[in-house]
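Example 3.
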Amino acid sequence: MKLRVQRLITPQTIALVAVLLFNWLLFPGFFSVEWKDGRLFGSLIDVLNRGAPVAILAIGMTMVIATKGVDLSVGAVMAIAGAVAATGVESGLTVWQAVPLALVAGLLCGLWNGVLVAVLDIQPIIATLVIMVAGRGIAQLITQGFIVTFNDPSLIYIGTGSALGLPMPVLIAVALLILTTLIVRRTALGLLVEAVGVNRSAARFAGISAMSLLILVYVFSGFCAAVAGIIVAADIHGADANNAGLWLELDAILAVVIGGTSLLGGRFSIPMAVLGAMIIQAMNTGILVSGFPPQFNLIVKAGIIIAILVLQSPVASRLFKRA
Amino acid sequence: MNRSLRPLAATAVIFILAYAAAAFQFPTLVSTRVLGNFLTDNAFLGITAVGMTFVILSGGIDLSVGAVIGFTGVFVAVMISWGGYHPAVAFAIALAVSAAFGAAMGAAIHWLKVPSFIVTLAGMFLARGAASVISADSIPINHEIYDWISQAYWKMPGGGRLSMIGGVMVLVFVLGALLAHRTRFGANVYALGGNAHSAELMGVPIGRTTILIYTLSSTLAGLSGIVFSLYTQAGYSLSAVGVELDAIGAVVIGGTLLTGGYGFVAGTFIGVMLMGLVQTYIIFDGTLSSWWTKIVIGVLLFMFILLQRLVFRAQAARA
């Protein structure tokens, strides 16, 4: 596939470059990357590393939003997966048993959401609200209300280790991005998901099994949330049922929206959503390195959502047409 | 019985059964004392849930209410403790600010044609961010009026105390029910939630109604923030995190249909009481850990969503 330069110039890449340049102006050492102890270090690598969990969530969330749905439960699923992995290794399981167990927990949560949305025909916001509310309770049930800490070196490696000079979370996110994009774009799967998102009954009449596709995207989103949850738990060497992944569902939705995927379903782009996650993280890092209080983070985020909403609205497109 | 009252009746029956089961185990639960604490402890949630009922009746959702509660608390605390204003002045300005905030969100939802979900999400970030920019620390409120209001109560027969803030919640529910079922605005909200397109053809002022709905929800969230600051005697930017979920949960458990157009303010009251009962039962039991609250509320939520689905599917099949 030939990569054309024009295709790389999108509002998202421009925004990311602008945010990075802004960070560089505030903090001149922003672009310096050094090689130490067999891996890369620097603010840019830090943006990639810190942004990886939201990027992974955004990959799953993109598929859900493409079907005109939304998955509010991903933050709570992260907490459940982290709790399962941490409690698993603490009670004597090897990492090869605990991590798959945590992934299965995520898949089950996704399956539950998928069945509620596809089979029982419940609005996605509400269907996924059930696990969003109950999920943290379940995670606390697993950890018995404690913050379970662990010292298993192979589990910690998933969060803080590195390979090929890059931190593990970044590698996992990149692998997931490439794999998902290939599966979705090299097969008809992506097209089918778009068809369901644009018009579910039309897709069904066209012979698409909308029900199993819908279940599949929620299961995939649950899986992505579990991966992100394991990374976050491995990063802090513990599972915090109350705070792991708190509000990350909103960041993930924001990343997908910044990536240009419409909340009304249909056309979607996974790489753009990942780029969106990187823009959010670059902003967070920028606010931190510039010495602004981190409280401004939320206001800046709100400002960006409002700007995107205004730009995407029918009012704005009418104005542009006239101009 | 009127068929449209069935989900409300189901909620009421489940509450009575749950209350009876709990009272069978802990006879002391049946006292006006417990009832009074019920109303006081859930006052801020109940007031918010009334506003949320209107939003959900119109087919929308308001994720910003928890953040508005936090913001109002901080705002009121700053005005009273740092600015030296009289609480009445602070309350009036805080309510005006939250009303304007809600009106802006309603206008954005109507004019920009974006889902209420994403607009109120931005609102949530904005209000939470603004609150923590004003002050990241908890600000105590020491004012004689605050002490007086939070200690004022009406002694119910049986020794229970109906506190002022519990009374405010009951009043908001009564006014909310009148507004929903006895006014033109209420009828417009139902019409909008039933089918926005038909409502527009019927001459319902869509824009005005939408803006008023979110103004109402935010104003009640602001009132709830004031009540919360009376309850805790402080303002803190991170207070009431996740109250929007509790409020949505109470509305759903109260039998209001999430697709809009169907529900009762009285149902929401039972929903709030049922959630309060779950918490009180877990405290009475003593051996159950606090996380069971979340799990039980999640299960209740699921049961009611399922119930609504089955009831309305059966009705659709008959029609």
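The beta strands of chain B are 139-140, 153-155, 161-163, 234-235. The mean pLDDT of chain B is 86.
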